[in-house]
Amino acid sequence: MSRQFHPDYFYNAGAAERRASLERSSYLNDAYRTLKQPMGRVEYLLKIEGLAAASPQDASKQVPPELLQEVFALNEELDEIRDLRAAGGSSTDIRERLERARQPIEEKRAAHEAQLASLSEQWDALPDGAPAAERRKVLTALRDRTLERSYINNLLAGIERELSQ
Hints:
By secondary structure, the protein is an all-alpha fold. The chain has a domain at 53-164. The chain has 7 helices and no strands. The longest helix is centred in the middle third of the chain and has 35 residues, at 91-125. The mean pLDDT is 88.
């Protein structure tokens, strides 16, 4: 389709046809970029299936229950690190504590990425006309992992902000 609608093939056409060719080509390029990126593809799938979060900000505000314990532990650690920084603690000690705090969150992110890949493969393996309950089960799991991924990324961004201070 890209070759069929590429603007180079319409250089002798009228202005309307050239414009239509450019629009189609742009649309195809956008679709390709979306589908080529695994997370972009999952987010698009959830959107067209009506399961996407309202916005990235909404997704990151909702603490997934599976992460509550880690969130509390990390927030306590970050509070202690801020107190240590305010008390004039060693920047080396602060950096080491932040790196230790980051490690379990990074491991959780890696596990989530693997789960997302596995769920994407499950979705791709579903036959056309698969029962709605089976489709919904995979889509719901994809949505949950995506929401958790957003929260994990925000946790890691918080650690990065502390590291940059």
